[in-house]
Amino acid sequence: MTSLSAYAADNAERVRQVIGSAAAFDKARLAGKKAAFFCVNCHGEDGNSANDNIPNLAGQNAVYLLNQIERFADGRRQDEFMSGLIKVLKPEDRFNMAIYYSGQPVTAKPGKNSAAMAKGKQLYDGICKGCHGAQGYGGEKIARLAGQRPVYLSHSLEQYRKGTKLRSDPIMGSIARRLKDEDIAALAVYIPTMK
Does the global pTM surpass 0.85? Predict the structure, then answer.
């Protein structure tokens, strides 16, 4: 039996091969768009969610996204709706969806509260950019935050702070436990404006 880390490494290598070939990328992207037809209601036609408490998938790193999809499928990540939905997808559909969403542009939202934006930027630069990057693009093991939905961000940070089963990453938990409510609110104002 293949270990989870070996499986993740295989996913990463396959994603790199597909992204490195224009023809393979286009084929996977088109198949992924077709497979994602049932995701549209929650995550939007192009991965930009119209619902503020549902995450954008657009622009997410394909390896990161595929690994999250696999976590829903095998129970390491749990959500009553997503877990059941992902399990009915074939592995090839999951892979192609990750490729499709990774290639979609994120629609950033303009900020309206300049004081909250300034505080959010200061907090982001101080505690988030070391892992998520200066532009918030994340990577293969770290989520893209740039352009993410504000309510989703707030809720996720609150869950990390509480250490719930849904959000139990030790690094994020230790950071989130130091955040006050107003800090979370400021980050949720600033991060969606990042492109």
Answer: yes
